[in-house]
Amino acid sequence: MYLGRLVRASFIDAMDSEYVQTALLKGLSDRRILFRHALPNAIAASLPAAGLVAAITITGVVVVEEVYSYPGLGTAVVSAVNAHDLPVMQACILVLATTYYLFNLLADVFAAMTRTR
């Protein structure tokens, strides 16, 4: 819900900007204005938030797996904590932290790519 509102607000800001007004005055089609001018700028503003939401969702696997008794990385973390198994706990947390970092890095790279167009 948060991400949808953010994309909507970014898109409304992009549609109210001067470059969209200039494109309208030049006589460009609505489709070209939307996909060439407004959409890339609206997405560029919301990509970092999307990366953060994806990273939090992936690292929230611990809770979901424990609640629904799915075998996986989250279950391994909980059982390692209960058994005081430090190497397994460190490895699982390292995998989750790396995943979190990579999602944020990808979001920043994609946001930078859309800004440079």
Automatic annotation (TrEMBL):
List, alphabetically, the InterPro entries matched: MetI-like, MetI-like_sf
Keyword Disulfide bond assigned to the entry: answer is no
Matching Pfam families, A to Z?
Answer: BPD_transp_1
| Ranges annotated as spanning the membrane | 42-64, 88-111
Cell compartment(s), UniProt: Cell membrane
Domain ABC transmembrane type-1: from-to ranges: 1-107
What is the membrane topology noted in the UniProt record heading this document? Multi-pass membrane protein
Swiss-Prot/TrEMBL keywords: Cell membrane, Membrane, Transmembrane, Transmembrane helix, Transport
* Family designation: Belongs to the binding-protein-dependent transport system permease family.
| Protein's recorded name | ABC transmembrane type-1 domain-containing protein
- What phylogenetic lineage does the species belong to? Bacteria, Bacillati, Actinomycetota, Actinomycetes, Streptosporangiales
